[in-house]
């Protein structure tokens, strides 16, 4: 099953319209969608390494636009939309304590969580709007965080593409398992480290 999913993703990644799907997933992941764009970015760069920088740009631009939507949801419809989303990730009950810490460390949280950790970025965007973080600081931090993440992934795959692809294809189950563990670890970190 994992091999079939991998092969399907690689075929999708090679199609001309795959960039639209990548942009859509990148946008949605920043505000409400649970699956990170790396799931498409990685096979797309592996399938066609010369597009690595363009794909990283698509991820970055769409992710920052989606982050603005997440910020707006947090700022303007927190009770109606953001609170239920935060409830899914375990933040609803302790939001006030989180907001105080967030107001003090907000820019660093956006930088670190948005670029270096598997924590869901949507939690950061919703919290930034809900706590009233300065929009310009938020945007600057989001641009730096998301571009550093996606361009780093693209660069590693561009420079080490064939060996990375060989490693993934030979150890597909291991790579898939580590990816699932990283995503679940992000969710658990959110739930228990606040």
Give me the secondary-structure topology:
Blueprint: H1 2-14, H2 18-29, H3 38-47, H4 52-76, H5 78-88, H6 95-115, H7 121-130, H8 135-170, H9 172-192
Features:
elongated, 9 helices, mainly alpha
Could you explain how this protein is built, in words?
By secondary structure, the chain is an all-alpha fold. It has one domain. Helix content is 82%, strand content 0%. The chain contains 9 helices and no strands. Helix 1 crosses helix 3 (38-47) and helix 3 (38-47) packs across helix 8. The chain is elongated. The mean pLDDT is 78.
User: How large is the radius of gyration?
Assistant: 17 Å
Strand and helix order = HHHHHHHHH
Reported for the largest beta sheet, the result is: none
Q: What is the mean pLDDT?
A: 78
Q: Strand fraction band?
A: under 5%
Q: Could you say how many structural domains there are in total? A: 1
Structural class: mainly alpha
Low-confidence regions: none
Number of helices, counting only DSSP H or I runs of 4 residues or more? 9
Q: Given the C-alpha coordinates, what overall shape results?
A: elongated
| Helix fraction by DSSP (H/I, runs of at least 4) | over 70%
Q: What's the total count of β strands? A: 0
Amino-to-carboxy terminus distance: 36 Å
């Amino acid at each position: 099953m994992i091999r079939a999913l991998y092969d399907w993703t690689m075929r999708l990644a090679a199609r001309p319209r795959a960039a639209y799907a990548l942009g859509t997933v990148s946008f949605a992941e920043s505000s409400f969608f649970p699956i990170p764009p790396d799931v498409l970015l990685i096979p797309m760069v592996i399938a066609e390494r010369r597009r690595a920088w363009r794909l990283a740009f698509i991820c970055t631009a769409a992710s920052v636009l989606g982050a603005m939507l997440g910020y707006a949801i947090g700022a303007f419809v927190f009770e109606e939309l953001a609170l239920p989303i935060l409830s899914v990730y375990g933040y609803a009950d302790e939001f006030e304590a989180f907001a105080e810490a967030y107001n003090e460390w907000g820019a660093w949280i956006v930088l670190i969580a948005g670029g270096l950790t598997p924590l869901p970025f949507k939690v950061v965007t919703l919290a930034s709007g809900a706590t009233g973080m300065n929009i310009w600081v938020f945007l600057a931090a989001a641009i730096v965080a998301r571009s550093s993440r996606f361009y780093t992934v693209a660069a590693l795959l561009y420079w080490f593409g064939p060996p990375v692809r060989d490693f993934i294809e030979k150890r597909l189950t291991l790579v898939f398992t580590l990816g699932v563990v990283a995503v679940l670890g992000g969710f658990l970190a959110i739930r228990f480290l606040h």
